[in-house]
Amino acid sequence: MKIHIITIFPESFESYFSSSIMKKAIDNNLFFIELYKLNDFSKNSSKRVDEKAYGMHGQVISPEPLSDCIDYIFSNTWKNIPVVYMTPKWDLLNQEKVENYYDNLWSEFIIICWHYEWIDQRIIDLYVDYSISIWEYVLSSWELSATVFIDSLVRHIPLVLWNQKSLEEDSFSKALDRKKEYPVYTRPEVFKWKKVPSILLSWNHGEIEKWKKDNLT
């Protein structure tokens, strides 16, 4: 999987993708991140990429630099790959949708991270294939939501997680009937007078599986 990210603040991604599971996945060539600073595509002498909105308060990302950046990526990939726009307005993510997006985007795609108010609607009309929201609230910039979306996808790439079984039994997974995961325990068996359920200490796998199903919420 290769992800092209268009952003005003590429440095905001550095810490997350240089640590933990994401770093290991990148180091093992399981996925790739390419960052594009939108200001580099501005023809304005000040390198600004926003303008005052028509008919409303606030600033909007200009269509020209964003279009030039997307076209630049298309020219380098030799094809028009899918374009994702992170926004609070449209398709609200859940686990089932993440799985579908992974199936559709697993090879290569672009993410647009907006700032200020929005991006010009004409960019959405001309380029955007998927408008995705991580929840029903507004952020100051959408690098954070892009990171959340990328993390949710990358976990599905084979070999990213040490144990693929853990992915199959995540909360809201198909295997758990889209329900929340059952409670989990580890050593010690007794902690502050609270004990691990006795069934989990048995070797009765059938009863353990039944306990798991009975404790989904």
Please give a structural write-up.
- There is one protein chain.
- It is elongated, with a radius of gyration of 21 Å.
- The two termini are 33 Å apart.
- By secondary structure, it is of the alpha/beta class.
- The protein is 35% helix and 20% strand.
- The mean pLDDT is 91.
- It has a 5-stranded parallel beta sheet with strand order 2-1-6-5-8.
- The longest helix has 15 residues.
- Helix 3 packs parallel to helix 5.
- Strand 5, helix 4 and strand 6 form a beta-alpha-beta unit.
- It has 2 domains: 153 residues, SPOUT methyltransferase, trefoil knot domain (Alpha/beta knot); 51 residues, Trp Operon Repressor, Chain A.
**How many E strands?**
10
C-alpha-based Rg, rounded: 21 Å
* Morphology: elongated
CATH class wording of the largest domain: Alpha Beta
Write a brief caption for the model.
The protein is α/β, with parallel strands linked by helices. 35% of the residues lie in helices and 20% in strands. It has two domains: 2-154, SPOUT methyltransferase, trefoil knot domain (Alpha/beta knot, 3-Layer(aba) Sandwich); 164-214, Orthogonal Bundle (Trp Operon Repressor, Chain A).
Topology:
Elements: E1 2-7, H1 14-17, H2 20-27, E2 32-37, E3 50-52, E4 59-61, H3 63-77, E5 83-92, H4 95-105, E6 108-112, E7 118-119, H5 121-127, E8 130-133, H6 143-154, H7 164-168, E9 190-191, E10 194-195, H8 198-201, H9 205-214
Parallel strand pairs: 1-2, 1-6, 4-7, 5-6, 5-8
Antiparallel strand pairs: 3-4, 9-10
